[in-house]
Amino acid sequence: MMSDLILFSFILLFLLLMTNTKIQFVKARTLAKKISATVIEYRLEKGPLRNDYTKLDYPYLKLDLPNTEDKEVKLHYANSLKKPFKIGEKIDVFWLENKLVYWNAYDNGFSKFLPKTWAFWRSEDNN
């Protein structure tokens, strides 16, 4: 009984933290300028907060902006299981705290089911 309560508490805490992260991301995204970019290559690099030898495929992009012809920019969006984009694919990104992030990062997978606001019981038409 006690172990079930602990498990439930951890799951609830995890969901609250994930929801808060998504809400902060969505707020930052609404204030940001959407930039179109093209995936040009992947590079294997050590991921953040790793103390092992695991490397992740990070996409490098060419921004579709004037005066950025030869500049390659790392997208802070990696997956250890697969490459999320095809080479040559156009995606939307934005700058967040000096990092280039994927516009739709929280609109797929498990995260798409989390609310975008703490007032999730209201309809989006009333916001």
Largest sheet geometry: 5 strands, antiparallel
State the CATH topology: OB fold (Dihydrolipoamide Acetyltransferase, E2P)
The oligomeric state is single chain
Work out the helicity level. Answer: 10-25%
Write up this protein:
It contains one helix and five strands; from the N terminus they run H-E-E-E-E-E. The chain is of the alpha+beta class. The chain has a five-stranded antiparallel sheet with strand order 3-2-1-4-5, with no helix packed on it. It starts with a helix and ends in a 25-residue tail after the last strand.
Write the layout of secondary structure elements.
Elements: H1 2-31, E1 35-46, E2 55-63, E3 73-74, E4 90-96, E5 99-102
Antiparallel strand pairs: 1-2, 1-4, 2-3, 4-5
Gist of the model:
The chain has one domain (31-126): Beta Barrel (OB fold (Dihydrolipoamide Acetyltransferase, E2P)). Helices cover 24% and strands 27% of the residues.
Give me some keywords for this one.
1 helix, 24% helix, alpha+beta, 127 residues
